[in-house]
C-alpha cells in the first residue's frame, strides 16, 4: 500500500468514528449521509462519495468534517474547490483532524503558494506519530519539492504551453498522447463515457480507460475522436503507448496480470487487431505501466515494479534477440532510477531519454526529466528537470516529441483545464527573422549606417540584446530575434541615440517566419545630421585600447556549463578591464559542439553565456553593460570531427561593444 493510500485508509477510519454532537433528526440524517459517503471514500471512489458530503453541507454549510473530507475528495479532479473546502474546514474547526496541516500543505503547493505550503508542512511534523516514520520522510520530501517548485517557477523557460482543446479533452482524464509519423493521426486515452456502451466503471467510480483516435483537420483543429475499442475492447483499462513499424503496430497497456504491455497490428480495413503480450521477459506478475521501442526496433525501454523492493516503478531496457523476442531486461542505472516512481520512458532521435519521475528534483508529483546520452562514456548523464512551465507542482507525464521535434505532447492537471488530466502541446518558442529599413519621416530614402539594438528579456527576466547596422547599399537591417516578447529598439548613429521605440515581436513556433518592421525618425528638415554624421575619427577620437582589446575564450567540458578554474582567471580579467573602461559594454556569446540536437545546443550555449554573465555581475559589473547571445553549434571555430576540435567549439567568446554616449553609465564597482 503506498503512502497516500495509507493516509486515506486512516482518514476513512477517522471518518467512520466521527461523532455528531447533537442528536436531532437533522444531525442523525447528516451522520448517516457521512457514513454512506465514507463507504465510497474507503474504496477511493471520491466522485461517488462527494454527493453525500454535499448533502450534509446543504443542511449544515459549516460541518467541518464534511468540508474536510469533501475537500480531500475534490483533490482528484478539482484542486481549486479542494482548497476552498479544506481552508474553510480549518477556519470552522482548527483541529478538525490530526492531518489538517498536511492537507493544507498539499493544497497550497499545487496552487503555487509554496511559502504557505512549507509552513503547513513544518507545522505538521510535530503531529506525526513515532510509528509513522514514513510520513516524516514524505513530508521532508514535500518541503524540498516546494522549494524546487519555487525556484523553477521563478525562472521559467521560453516555452508556450497550449491545451489541445475541448474536442480531445473532457471533464475526465485524457492522457498518453501518441502521434503518427506524418503528424496527422493522434491516439490518446480517455476515461470519459464516450463509446463505453456498457457504462461499466472501475472501483474508483470512473469509467475504464479506452483508446481513442482522431485526425488533424488543419493546424490545431481535430476531428471528433472515435473509440477504437473493437478487437481491443477489454473488461478493464486499455491505454495507448506508441505507434511503431511505420505506424502499422501499436504498443498499449492493458490492466491484466496486474498490468501488462501489449501490442496490436493494424488490419487491412484500418482497424486494430487483437492485443498480444509483448513477451514473458517484459511482462511479469507485477505492474508494467509504459514502454517505448526505439526507431530501429532493437531496444525496448519500459517501466516495471517487478525488480523493486518497495514496489515503486523503475525503468529497464531490453535488447531484441535474433529470434525476434525481447531479451532479459537490465536497469538503465541508478542515475535515472530512484526510490520513487520512474515511469513513461521515451527516446528522442538524438538518443536523449525523456521520462517522468516523482524523484530527483521534482516540483511535485511526476515531473518530466531528460537524460542526455554521453557517447564517450557510454552512459546517460544526470537527468535534468525540464523546468516550468513544462512541469508544474502537480503530475506531468507522457511527454512525447512531435515527428520533427519542434513541439511535444504531454498530459497534466493544470489550473484552467477541462477537468482532470488534459493533453497539452509544448511549443519551443523560436527565433524569427526581422528585417526592414530606417527612414527619415520627411524622406523616402532609407538611411544607411544606423545601428539598431533590440533590447528585451528572456522568460526568466535575463536581458537579451540583438544588433545590426543598416547597409550602405540599400539601408536594410536584418537579424534574428527571439519571438514572443516586446523589445525596446534603440537606433543610434556613431554612439548618438537618435530614438528608442517599442516593438512587439509576435510568438513564432517555426524557423522560417520573417517579420518586416520599418522605423521612422523625425528630423524636421535637417536630415544631414544623420546621413553625414561625423565618424569617430572625424571627432578626433582615435581607436584606443578599448576598441581593439581582445579577450581569450573560455572553454567547457562536454555537455557542461560550469566554469573551470582557468575560466575564472579570464573572467576576472574581463571584469577588471570593464571597471577601468566605463565606455565599454561586452557581448557574451555561447557556443557548443555538434553532439546534441540544434535545439538542445542553443539552450546549452545560452547556459554557458549565462554562467559567465552571472560571474561578471557577482564581480560588480552592472548587468546593463552585458549582453548574452547563444549561437549553439552554428558558428564552429573548427570542424566537429575530432574530440580536440569539439573542445575548441565548446566555448564562450567576449566581444567588446564600444559606446560613445554623452550620458555614460557609472559602473558598479
From TrEMBL:
Protein source organism: Pontibacter lucknowensis
Swiss-Prot/TrEMBL keywords: Cell outer membrane, Membrane, Signal, TPR repeat
Coiled-coil residue spans: none
Compartments where found: Cell outer membrane
UniProt GO cellular component terms: cell outer membrane
Keyword Nucleus: no
Name recorded for this polypeptide: WD40-like Beta Propeller Repeat
Xref: InterPro entries: 6-blade_b-propeller_TolB-like, Bact_OuterMem_StrucFunc, OMP_bac, OmpA-like, OmpA-like_sf, TPR-like_helical_dom_sf, TPR_rpt, WD40
Superkingdom of origin organism: Bacteria
Domain OmpA-like, chain residue ranges per copy: 543-660
TPR repeat ranges, renumbered to this chain: 30-63
Amino acid at each position: 500500500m503506498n503512502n497516500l493510500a495509507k493516509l486515506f485508509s486512516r482518514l476513512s477510519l477517522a471518518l467512520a468514528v466521527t461523532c455528531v454532537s447533537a442528536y436531532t433528526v437533522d444531525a442523525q440524517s447528516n451522520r448517516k449521509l457521512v457514513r454512506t459517503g465514507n463507504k465510497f471514500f474507503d474504496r477511493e471512489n471520491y466522485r461517488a462519495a462527494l454527493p453525500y458530503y454535499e448533502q450534509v453541507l446543504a443542511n449544515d454549510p459549516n460541518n467541518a468534517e464534511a468540508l474536510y473530507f469533501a475537500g480531500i475528495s475534490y483533490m482528484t479532479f478539482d484542486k481549486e474547490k479542494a482548497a476552498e473546502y479544506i481552508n474553510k474546514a480549518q477556519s470552522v474547526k482548527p483541529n478538525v483532524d490530526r492531518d489538517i496541516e498536511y492537507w493544507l500543505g498539499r493544497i497550497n503547493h499545487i496552487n503555487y503558494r509554496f511559502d504557505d505550503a512549507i509552513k503547513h508542512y513544518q507545522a505538521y511534523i510535530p503531529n506525526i506519530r513515532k510509528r509513522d516514520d514514513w510520513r516524516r520522510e514524505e513530508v521532508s520530501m514535500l518541503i524540498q519539492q516546494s522549494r524546487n517548485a519555487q525556484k523553477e517557477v521563478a525562472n521559467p523557460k521560453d516555452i508556450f504551453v497550449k491545451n489541445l482543446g475541448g474536442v480531445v479533452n473532457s471533464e475526465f482524464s485524457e492522457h498518453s498522447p501518441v502521434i503518427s509519423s506524418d503528424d496527422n493521426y493522434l491516439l490518446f486515452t480517455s476515461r470519459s463515457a464516450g463509446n463505453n456502451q456498457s457504462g461499466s466503471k472501475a472501483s474508483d467510480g470512473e469509467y475504464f480507460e479506452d483508446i481513442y483516435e482522431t485526425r488533424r483537420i488543419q493546424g490545431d483543429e481535430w476531428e471528433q475522436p472515435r473509440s477504437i475499442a473493437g478487437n481491443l475492447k477489454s473488461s478493464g483499462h486499455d491505454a495507448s503507448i506508441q505507434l511503431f513499424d511505420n505506424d502499422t503496430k501499436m504498443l498499449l497497456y492493458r490492466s491484466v496480470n496486474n498490468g501488462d504491455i501489449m501490442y496490436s497490428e493494424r488490419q487491412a480495413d484500418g482497424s486494430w487487431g487483437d492485443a498480444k503480450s509483448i513477451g514473458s521477459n517484459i511482462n511479469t506478475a507485477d505492474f508494467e505501466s509504459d514502454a517505448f521501442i526505439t526507431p530501429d526496433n532493437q531496444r525496448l525501454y519500459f517501466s516495471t515494479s517487478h525488480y523493486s523492493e518497495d514496489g515503486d516503478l523503475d525503468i529497464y531496457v531490453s535488447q531484441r534477440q535474433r529470434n525476434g523476442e525481447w531479451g532479459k531486461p537490465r536497469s538503465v542505472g541508478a542515475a535515472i532510477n530512484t526510490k520513487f516512481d520512474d515511469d513513461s520512458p521515451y527516446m528522442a532521435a538524438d538518443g536523449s531519454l525523456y521520462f517522468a519521475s516523482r524523484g530527483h528534483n521534482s516540483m511535485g508529483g511526476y515531473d518530466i526529466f531528460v537524460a542526455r546520452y554521453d557517447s564517450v562514456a557510454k552512459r546517460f548523464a544526470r537527468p535534468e528537470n525540464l523546468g516550468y512551465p513544462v512541469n508544474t507542482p502537480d503530475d506531468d507525464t507522457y511527454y512525447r516529441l512531435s515527428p520533427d521535434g519542434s513541439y511535444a505532447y504531454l498530459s497534466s492537471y493544470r489550473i484552467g483545464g477541462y477537468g482532470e488530466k488534459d493533453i497539452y502541446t509544448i511549443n519551443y518558442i523560436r527565433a524569427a527573422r526581422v528585417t526592414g529599413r530606417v527612414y527619415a519621416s520627411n524622406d523616402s530614402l532609407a538611411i544607411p549606417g544606423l545601428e539598431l539594438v533590440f533590447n528585451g528579456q528572456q522568460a526568466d527576466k535575463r536581458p537579451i540584446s540583438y544588433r545590426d547596422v543598416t547597409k550602405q547599399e540599400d539601408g536594410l537591417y536584418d537579424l534574428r530575434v527571439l519571438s514572443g516578447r516586446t523589445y525596446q529598439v534603440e537606433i543610434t548613429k556613431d554612439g548618438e541615440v537618435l530614438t528608442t521605440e517599442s516593438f512587439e515581436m509576435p510568438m513564432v513556433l517555426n524557423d522560417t517566419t520573417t517579420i518586416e518592421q520599418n522605423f521612422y525618425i523625425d528630423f524636421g528638415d535637417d536630415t544631414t545630421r544623420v546621413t553625414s554624421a561625423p565618424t569617430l575619427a572625424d571627432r578626433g577620437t582615435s581607436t584606443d585600447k578599448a576598441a581593439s582589446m581582445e579577450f581569450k575564450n573560455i572553454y567547457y567540458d562536454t555537455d557542461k556549463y560550469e566554469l573551470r578554474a582557468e575560466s575564472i582567471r579570464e573572467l576576472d580579467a574581463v571584469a577588471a578591464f570593464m571597471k577601468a573602461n566605463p565606455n565599454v559594454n561586452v557581448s557574451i556569446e555561447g557556443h557548443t559542439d555538434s553532439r546534441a540536437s540544434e535545439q538542445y545546443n542553443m539552450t546549452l550555449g545560452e547556459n554557458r553565456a549565462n554562467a559567465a554573465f552571472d560571474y561578471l555581475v557577482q564581480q560588480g559589473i552592472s548587468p546593463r553593460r552585458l549582453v548574452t547571445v547563444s549561437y549553439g553549434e552554428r558558428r564552429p571555430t573548427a570542424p566537429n570531427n575530432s574530440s580536440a576540435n569539439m573542445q575548441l567549439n565548446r566555448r564562450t567568446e567576449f566581444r567588446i561593444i564600444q559606446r560613445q554616449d554623452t550620458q555614460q553609465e557609472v559602473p558598479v564597482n
